[in-house]
């Protein structure tokens, strides 16, 4: 089955996810276009994070989960029906990178946080690993801050730095789709601003899907906004529809 | 009537606290006042020079050096057996035992093992030797290896439970971190979860060392003796610190031997108290750290 | 997408399977050990179930050299000592917890909890040793009766051993009590003592029950204290100042004296009973916990 349109990179149809009989995602269908930032908004508990996790099959790591429906992802070299094709799950998760609300560095050095996944997941030789680390840290503007302290523990970094480190760790694996689960929720204003700028730069190369609690943030960075309620997407908005201040709020008030 | 009941309870609760403190103080004061003068190198080595005892292997007959070495061997061997098994079992229970039937079966067994009186563990070792003697190995006797195996069984539940708890209390989102990067299940456990849980696991290991060092009932039935000197091999009889305390309490012939008993008791108390406090400290640090 | 189908999968798959199998085996070792212990106890105790052996065992006289191998005095000893030391330690432990929960001043409760924590690290043999040279002579002088090695001496020493067990379990249960409800009841005008009696203790009965069961298990399971200070006479005591012998001490004594095969039978009978007690304690704890869900 081909994709409805070529610019689309995520395609979900009749997707339902439940945890021990509690339905969280309910018959959800959506198309998400590539090289864009798509922001998902909605109240807490409507299934935003669960939807994100259904795109890299991460729900399967949570006990009692059940997924039905179709999710197709288009990568550079083809399209994968992730719940039907026998595509290796580790490779899928490498290609669909994810960053979480609270940064979780591996409790080792800064350098190892990046090199370990490259070694374990991609089996890269160490020469290439160093290049990739530098490249990833440069993208997230962390290279100049940490290049002389790669051997120091990652947990000694500030919250904002840790989050950028986690982003770099994901980017180093060269994913094609980026899932962000409220990436700025645990950060202060300054650090959030840095991450937002970063995302706007990254959308040239990646398809970014982010969950956000902040409507202001959605307006600042989103090309598309998906509004979720009770486990489905009830509204899809394009940037032109909410750029003016206040319109997004009004639209959302209408919906809730 | 109700008022007086309340009053009685208040008085009793005060009294229990004050009594606990007083009794324990008397206990400590007595042990320290009788024991502290003997806490010196002579307690360990008697009339042999420390250098001679440690490096030349001159036998020590009037010091607790052989008992201290015996206990160290015992702790070391039993932990060498129990730590890998215990941590692995803890990982299995926390991360792999998803089907509830296996989980509850193994949980049940671990609980049973944890509640087993240590003398039963010793009796088990003794029974194994009795069976070996009547079948394959007529010369088999109780020895250091046997005691270590039984002690390993004794401390195994501590290791399993602390490992399991340390892993299960990790935040749920952390569990997804490694997996989301494409780590396999084991890579995620080994590289991400275990490093985060290491403090809790370490507290379990220290607790296990403390338990292994202080238990007397198990070794009583599995090969400890009063005067064997240093153990030369795994199949030798051995001395141990808790046993020499027990032995000296009943069998001391001179005032000097009795003093050695007090010194050994104080030494063992300091040893286990320090170990347990370190374990609690580690444990406290994680429960604060993980929010 | 066929090219990706088996990317790294076979190699990783084998390693992961091996690791998983090892973890399973490690977890099963506990179950195997429990099974092996039970098997050995039953295997060696088997001859008891021969009829006249069983009758020999169920008698009040232990005189191995006159062919009398009764185990009942030791059963009585274990049960009596377990009960008596709990009668002392249990109310005291709860008292400490009440004091810590709010009846006592902060410095006192802090100090008591710290000491109880330290008490958990005292080796039983050290308690026994101090008892032999402090408590036993004191009892001998004070009551002017016997040697001082007695049921009473063992009770007092053993209660010191189980006090931290009781206190820490009950205290943990008290701490679980929702501080919001605590605040609400304080706002209603409940004094700390009224809160304890009418709200906290009734809500914590599971923890109280668990502490009683576990404390009793610990008291019956202890060997060294009863072996060192109870006197070890295989008899039914007529007063607290009489000497008694527990099942655990009996096991230790019979092994060290090697009194012949019938004596060994009684050894393993004692082992089975102790196993049974710990299994019962375990079952009771499960039952108590299961009620909470």
Explain this structure to me?
The complex is a heterotrimer of chains A (256), B (291) and C (293). Chain A contains nine helices and ten strands. Chain A is globular and about 50 Å long. Chain A has helices at residues 48-54, 89-95, 110-122, 126-139, 143-146, 159-172, 189-202, 215-221, 247-255, and strands at residues 8-19, 22-33, 37-41, 65-75, 78-81, 96-99, 177-181, 207-211, 224-229, 232-238. In chain A, helix 3 packs across helix 4, helix 3 (110-122) runs parallel beside helix 6 and helix 4 (126-139) packs across helix 6 (159-172). The two termini of chain A are 35 Å apart. Chain A has a single domain (8-255), classed as Rossmann fold. Chain A is of the alpha/beta class. Chain B is mainly alpha-helical and 291 residues long. Chain B has a single domain (61-289), classed as Orthogonal Bundle (MetI-like fold), CATH 1.10.3720. Helix content of chain B is 77%, strand content 0%. Chain B contains twelve helices and no strands. Chain B has helices at 2-35, 41-45, 50-55, 65-96, 100-115, 118-134, 144-168, 172-180, 185-214, 217-221, 241-251, 255-289. The longest helix of chain B is centred in the C-terminal third of the chain and has 35 residues, at 255-289. Chain C is mainly alpha-helical. Chain C has two domains: 2-49; 57-290, MetI-like fold (Orthogonal Bundle). Chain C has helices spanning 9-45, 51-57, 72-103, 106-119, 124-143, 151-176, 179-187, 192-203, 205-221, 224-229, 247-257, 261-290, and strands spanning 62-63, 68-69. A two-stranded antiparallel sheet of chain C has the order 1-2. In chain C, helix 3 (72-103) runs antiparallel to helix 4, helix 5 (124-143) packs across helix 6 (151-176) and helix 9 packs antiparallel against helix 12. The longest helix of chain C is centred in the N-terminal third of the chain and has 37 residues, at 9-45. The two termini of chain C are 48 Å apart. The relative contact order of chain C is 0.14. Chains in contact: A-B, A-C, B-C.
Keywords:
heterotrimer, A: 256 residues, Rossmann fold, 6-stranded mixed sheet, 4-stranded antiparallel sheet, 9 helices, 35% helix, disordered N terminus, B: 291 residues, mainly alpha, 12 helices, globular
């Amino acid at each position: 089955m081909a994709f409805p349109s070529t610019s689309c990179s995520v395609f979900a149809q009749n997707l339902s996810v439940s945890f021990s009989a509690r339905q969280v995602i309910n018959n959800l269908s959506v198309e998400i276009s590539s090289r864009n930032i798509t922001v998902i908004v909605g109240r807490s508990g409507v299934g935003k994070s669960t939807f994100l996790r259904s795109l890299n099959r991460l729900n399967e790591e949570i006990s009692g989960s059940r997924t039905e429906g179709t999710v197709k992802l288009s990568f550079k070299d083809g399209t994968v029906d992730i719940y039907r094709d026998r595509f290796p799950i580790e490779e899928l998760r490498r290609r669909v990178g994810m960053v979480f609300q609270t940064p979780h560095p591996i409790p080792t050095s800064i350098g190892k946080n990046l090199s370990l996944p490259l070694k374990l997941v991609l089996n890269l030789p160490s020469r290439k690993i160093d290049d990739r680390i530098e490249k990833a840290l440069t993208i997230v503007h962390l290279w100049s801050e940490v290049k002389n302290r790669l051997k120091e523990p990652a947990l000694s970094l500030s919250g904002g730095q840790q989050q950028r480190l986690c982003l770099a760790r994901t980017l180093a694996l060269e994913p094609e789709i980026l899932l962000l689960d409220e990436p700025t929720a645990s950060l202060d204003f300054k650090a959030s601003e840095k991450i937002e700028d970063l995302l706007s730069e990254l959308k040239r190369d990646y398809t970014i899907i982010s969950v956000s609690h902040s409507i202001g943030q959605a307006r600042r960075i989103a090309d598309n906004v998906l509004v979720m309620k009770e486990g489905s997407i009830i509204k899809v908005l394009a940037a032109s529809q909410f750029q003016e201040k206040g319109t997004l709020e009004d639209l959302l008030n209408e919906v809730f | 009537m109700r008022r007086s009941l309340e009053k009685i309870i208040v008085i009793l609760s005060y009294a229990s606290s004050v009594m606990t403190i007083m009794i324990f103080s008397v206990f400590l004061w007595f042990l320290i006042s009788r024991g502290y003068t003997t806490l010196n190198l002579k307690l360990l080595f008697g009339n042999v020079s420390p250098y001679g005892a440690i490096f030349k292997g001159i036998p020590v007959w009037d010091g607790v050096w052989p008992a201290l070495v015996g206990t160290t061997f015992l702790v070391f061997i039993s932990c060498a057996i129990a730590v890998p098994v215990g941590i692995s079992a803890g990982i299995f229970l926390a991360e792999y035992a998803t089907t509830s039937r296996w989980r509850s079966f193994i949980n049940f067994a671990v609980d049973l093992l944890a509640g087993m009186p240590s003398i039963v563990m010793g009796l088990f070792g003794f029974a194994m030797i009795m069976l070996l003697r009547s079948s394959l190995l007529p010369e088999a006797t109780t020895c250091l290896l046997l005691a270590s195996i039984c002690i390993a069984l004794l401390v195994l539940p501590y290791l399993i439970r602390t490992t399991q708890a340390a892993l299960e209390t990790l935040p749920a989102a952390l569990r997804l971190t490694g997996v989301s990067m494409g780590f396999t299940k084991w890579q995620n456990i080994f590289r991400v979860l275990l490093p985060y849980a290491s403090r809790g696991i370490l507290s379990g290991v220290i607790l296990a060392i403390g338990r292994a060092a202080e238990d007397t009932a198990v070794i009583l039935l599995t090969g400890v003796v009063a005067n064997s000197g240093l153990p030369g091999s795994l199949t030798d009889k051995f001395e141990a610190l808790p046993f020499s305390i027990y032995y000296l309490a009943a069998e001391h012939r001179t005032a000097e031997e009795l003093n050695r008993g007090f010194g050994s008791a104080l030494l063992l108390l300091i040893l286990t108290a320090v170990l347990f406090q370190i374990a609690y400290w580690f444990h406290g640090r994680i429960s604060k750290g993980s929010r | 997408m066929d090219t990706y189908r088996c990317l790294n999968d076979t190699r990783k798959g084998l390693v992961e399977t091996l690791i998983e199998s090892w973890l399973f085996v490690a977890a099963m070792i506990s179950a195997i050990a429990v099974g092996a212990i039970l098997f050995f106890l039953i295997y060696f105790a088997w001859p008891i179930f021969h009829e006249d052996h069983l009758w020999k065992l169920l008698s009040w006289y232990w005189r191995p050299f006159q062919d009398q191998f009764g185990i009942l005095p030791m059963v009585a000893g274990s049960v009596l000592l377990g009960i008596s030391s709990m009668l002392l330690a249990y109310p005291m432990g709860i008292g400490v917890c009440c004091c810590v929960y709010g009846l006592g001043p902060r410095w006192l409760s802090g100090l008591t909890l710290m000491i109880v924590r330290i008490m958990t690290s005292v080796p039983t043999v050290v308690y026994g040793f101090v008892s032999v040279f402090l408590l036993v002579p004191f009892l001998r002088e004070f009551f002017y009766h016997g040697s001082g090695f007695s049921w009473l001496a063992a009770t007092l020493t053993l209660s010191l051993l189980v006090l931290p067990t009781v206190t820490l379990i009950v205290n943990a249960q008290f701490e679980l009590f929702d501080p919001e409800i605590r605040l609400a009841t304080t706002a209603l005008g409940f004094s700390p003592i009224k809160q304890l009696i009418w709200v906290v203790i009734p809500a914590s009965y599971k923890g109280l029950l668990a502490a009683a069961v576990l404390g009793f298990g610990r008291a019956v399971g202890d060997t060294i204290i009863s072996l060192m200070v109870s006197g070890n006479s295989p008899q039914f005591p007529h007063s607290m100042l009489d000497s008694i012998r527990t099942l655990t001490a009996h096991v230790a004594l019979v092994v060290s004296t090697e009194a012949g095969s019938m004596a060994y039978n009684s050894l393993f009978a004692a082992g089975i009973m102790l196993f049974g007690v710990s299994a019962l304690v375990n079952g009771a704890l499960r039952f108590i916990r299961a009620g909470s869900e």
